[in-house]
């Protein structure tokens, strides 16, 4: 007896940068590869990624809408008999909605953050109008956090009846030993100060200059920033002009855990999030969290339990939160334990796998 052919799913992302969207796509593909046949359409992140050397991959332009990409995606989908389109993020959503008109296949759209906080008033209204005009093309809308769904509702974005919340997840990792002596030489730092780490794209959303202002007040710690983006050069200029010597911009790193395990605390200064992969990665090893009290972060960290929140823009409060953890071993251990076990309870791959498996079954071919 022959096995039934797997349902074919096209995953689309307009972002090729290391970060939440692409990481989520690769993880989703890996955990469900036995049940579904996945195809990828996205920019290349880094050349050694095996996903980009396959007949099931189509390279598209980074964060731009090109007619040639639309045509290539339509042909790619027809050639491979795609059954379901799953778009990740705003740019991918636009692309997917256009090709759906030609393919007439079920479209699932995951928001991965609603970016109106970084838009001026005109662009904000145009975006809301766009979502309300084109949103009916989606068979299902996925929010990665409750606060993201609340934000969409408050903005009066059309979400329809078919919507659900599926939290992001990351792999289980072994627990960090916060008492163990760190070796900063392993990560290219020539002193042995304690390390505070942030992992983010260097873009407006991540509010990176707040990290540098915090670092200037807390000179006794190293501040490690992993990630790249259009603000990288401005960040270097700002750090130099402010005479800040304890910030290390290491750019994109394939192995972020190499740096996480040499750190003592994770810092997020974002203006908003969908459901932050980087915080989940930090929690997966039990790293204490200090984060801005914003959409996405508030669904991930519990204040005074798995981390501390500070009010966005309040540098003094952020510094106080950091010092509460760094200068009190009992608090640090409590926060670490709670972060680690919260991840194991709420944000495991098995939970995400089961949720997406049920979703795809709803739209699989008969």
From TrEMBL:
Residue ranges annotated for the Glycosyl transferase family domain, each copy included: 181-339
Domain of life: Bacteria
Any GO molecular function: glycosyltransferase activity
Residue ranges occupied by any Glycosyltransferase subfamily 4-like N-terminal domain in the UniProt entry: 51-116
Annotated protein name in UniProt: Glycosyltransferase
Organism: Prochlorococcus marinus XMU1424
Lineage of producing organism: Bacteria, Bacillati, Cyanobacteriota, Cyanophyceae, Synechococcales
């Amino acid at each position: 007896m022959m096995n039934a052919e797997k349902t074919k799913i096209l995953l689309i992302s307009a972002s090729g940068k290391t970060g939440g969207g692409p990481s989520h796509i690769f993880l989703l593909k890996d955990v469900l590869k036995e049940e579904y046949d996945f195809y990828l359409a996205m920019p290349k992140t880094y050349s050694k990624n095996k996903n980009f050397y396959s007949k099931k991959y189509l390279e598209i332009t980074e964060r731009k809408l090109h007619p040639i990409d639309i045509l290539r995606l339509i042909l790619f989908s027809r050639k491979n008999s795609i059954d379901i389109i799953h778009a990740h993020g705003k740019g991918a959503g636009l692309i997917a909605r256009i090709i759906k008109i030609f393919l007439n296949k079920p479209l699932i759209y995951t928001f991965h953050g609603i970016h109106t906080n970084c838009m001026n008033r005109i662009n904000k209204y145009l975006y809301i109008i766009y979502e309300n005009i084109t949103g009916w093309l989606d068979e299902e809308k996925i929010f990665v956090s409750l606060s993201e769904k609340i934000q969409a509702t408050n903005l009066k974005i059309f979400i329809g009846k078919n919507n659900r919340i599926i939290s992001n997840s990351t792999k289980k990792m072994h627990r960090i030993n916060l008492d163990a002596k760190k070796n900063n030489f392993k990560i290219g730092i020539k002193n042995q100060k304690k390390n505070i780490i942030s992992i983010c794209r260097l873009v407006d959303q991540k509010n990176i200059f707040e990290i540098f202002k915090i670092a200037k007040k807390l000179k006794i710690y190293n501040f490690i920033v992993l990630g790249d983006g259009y603000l990288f050069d401005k960040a270097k200029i700002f750090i130099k002009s402010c005479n800040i010597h304890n910030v290390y911009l290491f750019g994109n790193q394939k192995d972020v855990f190499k740096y996480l395990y040499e750190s003592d605390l994770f810092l997020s200064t974002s203006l908003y999030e969908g459901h932050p992969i980087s915080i989940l990665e930090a929690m997966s090893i039990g790293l204490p969290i200090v984060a801005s009290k914003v959409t996405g972060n508030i669904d991930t960290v519990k204040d005074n339990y798995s981390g501390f929140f500070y009010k966005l823009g309040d540098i003094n409060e952020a510094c106080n939160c950091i010092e509460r953890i760094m200068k009190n071993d009992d608090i640090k251990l409590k926060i670490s334990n709670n972060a680690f076990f919260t991840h194991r309870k709420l944000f495991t791959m098995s939970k995400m796998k089961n949720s997406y498996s049920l979703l795809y079954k709803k739209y699989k071919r008969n």
